[in-house]
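My convention is simple: the sequence line spells out the residues, with the fold written below as integer tokens. I include a record here:
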Amino acid sequence: MSEDKRHPALAQIGQRIRQRRRELGLTQEALAEAADLSKSFVSEMEGGLTSASGLLYLRVAEALDVEIQWLLTGLIPEDTRAPRPVTVPPLLSKIAEEKGWSHKRTLDVAAALGAVVARRTFEGRRWEPTRDEILRIANALPDEDR
């Protein structure tokens, strides 16, 4: 579909998805995994070529750690304007030290890991990633330190 035939609202939602994904340093594949979607569907959403159900948009918003209102409208509710702090779990801190990652790289991995943890936490049972899972997430992110 040519860009001029896309619905403007879908194109704007797609731009916000791409913007936030890039802020977090996620690839489309990593976002797709975190939101339990296909990479091609994420690509189509970012391109403004397809719409999704409310539940799918909610999964994307959760994976990107943003409010659904911002994702759909670009508006930020007053009580959520402050950035959410990124927590670096002890295992990630240990891995970062072993690998010699920069502070920025460690925070990028922590943010991506937080999105995956939020998606995989179920009925109050928090998912705890293993060392290998943390390294897979880190390897899926672009490495600006290289």
Summary: The radius of gyration is 16 Å. Residues 90-140 form one domain. The chain has a mean pLDDT of 83. The longest helix spans residues 103-120.
